[in-house]
Specification:
7 strands, 7 helices, 7-stranded mixed β-sheet, globular, about 200 residues, single chain, about 35% helix
Length: about 200
């Protein structure tokens, strides 16, 4: 994080166009620290960074924090209805789909991999499906946090709603730091981040 924090010693660094960063997860203590809540875990790391503190407000069926030209959004609906808060917030702030970055878990990526892209398939992710439905397009950014695939004997739902293993938890801090750094850099230079992190 040293390079990242040095990047912030010059003060908040925001791009010209407003960006909406959406962190997918499920509310409720039973879902805390599960694979499916990887987006919320990234949010926790991002808000520890200078320039992203402040008070969260309740609106758009969720909680949001405005910092400079960035709006951070945590939908408080369950995963399957994540698109409603995204549509409401993006309409309120006048943010186009291509300036939205959705942070989510991804079983198609190996554990610990972090990738960014614009558009693409839903990968069976109900949160992404809901966002696509409410925005009317798949042309929004995704910050994919790899959680790996479940063992052959385990259902996908049980896997993503389960907690990380002890071995995985030991690596989580650096993975989440990396994802948070990518999200912040997206705010200032989304084109470069999408090009370099596919």
């Amino acid at each position: 994080m040293s390079t990242f924090l040095a990047y912030f010693t010059r003060g908040p660094y925001y791009g010209d166009m407003p960006k909406l960063i959406v962190f997918l997860g499920n509310p409720g203590i039973q879902y805390r620290n599960t694979r499916h809540n990887a987006g919320w875990l990234v949010c926790d790391h991002m808000t520890r960074i200078p320039g992203f503190g402040g008070s969260w407000q309740e609106k758009f069926h969720g909680r949001f924090l405005k910092s400079g030209n960035a709006v951070l959004l945590k939908p408080m609906t369950y995963m399957n209805e994540s698109g409603l808060p995204v549509r409401e917030a993006s309409a309120f702030f006048g943010i186009k789909p291509e300036d939205i970055l959705v942070v989510h878990d991804d079983i198609e990526l190996g554990f610990g991999q972090v990738r960014c892209r614009l558009g693409g398939g839903m990968g069976g992710h109900n949160g992404l499906r809901s966002v696509r439905q409410h925005l009317g397009t798949e042309k929004f950014g995704r910050l994919r946090i790899g959680v790996g695939r479940p063992p052959a004997v385990m259902q996908v739902a049980d896997y993503v709603l389960g907690r990380f293993s002890e071995i995985e938890e030991k690596q989580l801090e650096s993975i989440l730091d990396n994802a948070a750094e990518t999200a912040v850099q997206y705010i200032s230079d989304s084109i470069r981040i999408l090009r370099e992190n596919i």
